[in-house]
Amino acid sequence: xxxxxxxxxxLEILKKYNKEDFHIQHGKTVGAVxxxxxxxxxxxxxxxxxxxxxxxDLDFELYPEEHCVKQVExxxxxxxxxxxxxxxxxxxxxxxxALQKPEKQMxxxxxxxxxxxxxxxxxxxxxxxxxxxxxxxxxxxxxxKDKKFAAGCSRDVIREGADMLGWELDELxxxxxxxxxxxxxxxx
Length: 188
Fold this sequence. Notes:
Blueprint: H1 7-17, H2 21-41, H3 46-55, H4 70-77, H5 82-89, H6 105-126, H7 137-145, H8 155-165, H9 169-187
Helix pairs in contact: 1-3, 2-3, 2-6, 2-9, 4-5, 6-8, 6-9
């Protein structure tokens, strides 16, 4: 059994392989969102969900062509537990060469909300308040439908994630938006 780091230890691991503020910020955002979902669906493992969210893109900055594959090697070198490796790499299933399919609810939520946090984050930058706190679902849905907005964030992946969870798309959009509102102070 490998190591399950604390959030602070995981943040140091993330910073070891990621220097760009954008990638560190994205990890922190997804970590906060995953912690929010854990409070509802797996309250005994909030810290674990936060660490998985924080580390989910560990290899992306240095190895974008090997995303979710090179991560296995990096995490093994760090001595991380296989549960973290499996959970983080599963968000690349069908999108990268990653072989781990999202099976647990946590993995499905990570798969579904990773890209969505990118859309919400991009929309926040355009708001006068520069905050998610005053964003409404209707505004998010409008941005979601505009394929040119945050074009690098796959709407198909988000829809597939909602399907994996058995949720309506609006439920995923609404919950992820609320998660970002409730945790904004954790990732800024």
